[in-house]
Amino acid sequence: MDSRRTSGLLLPVSALPSRYGIGDLGPAAFQFADLLTRTNQRLWQVLPVGPIGPGASPYSSPSTFAGNPLLISPEPLVEDGLLTEDDLAPLTELPADHVDYARLVPRKRKVLRTAFRRFRADVSTPEATRVQQFRASQSAWLDDYALYAALKDAHGGSAWTEWSSALVRRDLEALKRARDEHETAIERHVYWQYLFHRQWTALQAYCHARDIRLFGDLPIYVAPDSADVWAHQERFRLDDDGTPTSVAGVPPDYFSPEGQRWGNPLYRWDRMEEHDFAWWTERLRRAFELFDLVRLDHFRGFDEYWSIPAGHDTAIDGSWESGPGAAFFRAMEDEFGELPVVAEDLGIVTDSVGALRDTFDFPGMAVLQFAFGGGPDNDFLPHHHRRNMVAYTGTHDNNTIVGWWRDDLSDKERNFAHSYLNLPDTNPDESVHRQALRAMMASVADRVVTPLQDVIGLGSEGRINTPGTMGDNWAWRFTPDQIAEEDETRLAQLTHLYGRASGYGD
């Protein structure tokens, strides 16, 4: 993996500005790439770009392979004559500073249905041929996903475990009947995936031409109600009805006396290995098509994972079980060569987890907001960073750096951070984001990624997600007027000052 000093910004695609209720793959995405170029940034880190699940979480998706139709930009469809400005009027009524998913989803789906209906009116066009070529090239996952999505629509959104027993069991005759009965809906979902693919690859090419690398995020587990689990039940710990028998989570600790019960079905790693990790191979293949660098969420789970009996409401009675370990990553290296991945190794890192990470030379992570407990020996402090890591002021699960300074620190931690970051005694909350950015840029870590909110100094109103809560998560968006010229200038200067301005193409 390239070890030149670089830096980048973390910004979900959904957080981009647009006139249509949610950030998308349209003009604002290309403009953000231009901002990255102007400020000498070489990485754009995003959150998972799959269809959203309950609570609008990108980490609980109905498919680990598919793209999120909500991120499809309407502008190219207007240019193609598939939509009109009148079609888009309901979307322009939505707020500009956050995503109102309850209002957005039905309106955006209606707009995309309209585009599909007009596209389907003439199947002899070159575009129709390209859709079929895309469908053939992605058939390993797309056929199952499109059928799953069509059936979910037909069942009013109910989970696949609530469908008929023949569909739950994937009886071949039942699947054939379903494909025939829902042919139009299946084609619609294929078309939406094609549109996402077309727009994503255009943005990808634009970024690559400017030496910007797209940095994605891959959750280790998949949602129980997903095309992935429905289509590959034998690879998950399920009973005969498709209900998980063991689920994922983490054990109790000082911060969470009952632990965390995530509810994702656990893998049958023995069966995965018997099939040479074929499903995971295709999963990573898809991720590497979309991204130049991929963060493996909950990296510890590849070494050992917390297994919770599905009937238990908390994580207390779980137990540690061995993950696939080095055998998994050797198999992936045999397929792909050097793996462009980053290990999300936050939290407790055991010796075996660290050894697994280091055996394959994966970069780990360091987060500044975790650095000020425990005194000067804390490994997350910049003077303890390693070259082979990605350093952050915070991630999508953290408060903004200004919000953290104002709301999250004990007096002892705040005093330590005040001294370490060399903050002024007067109005330190006005400069903490600038000093935090400087500390990260000066780090020995080869890669630094900063949430956009920490470049422009937003408070808690700019937080993306608060783990363990429901409500306003995943909704934040920025507006163009929030980025001042002085913010861009400062970012560019710090990037150059600390030797991170050299591009991949230099």
TrEMBL record:
Belongs to the disproportionating enzyme family. This is 4-alpha-glucanotransferase. GO terms for biological process: carbohydrate metabolic process. Keywords: Carbohydrate metabolism, Glycosyltransferase, Transferase. Its EC number is 2.4.1.25. It comes from Salinibacter ruber (strain M8). It catalyses: Transfers a segment of a (1->4)-alpha-D-glucan to a new position in an acceptor, which may be glucose or a (1->4)-alpha-D-glucan. It is an enzyme of class 2 (transferase). It comes from the Bacteria. Gene3D superfamilies: Glycosidases.
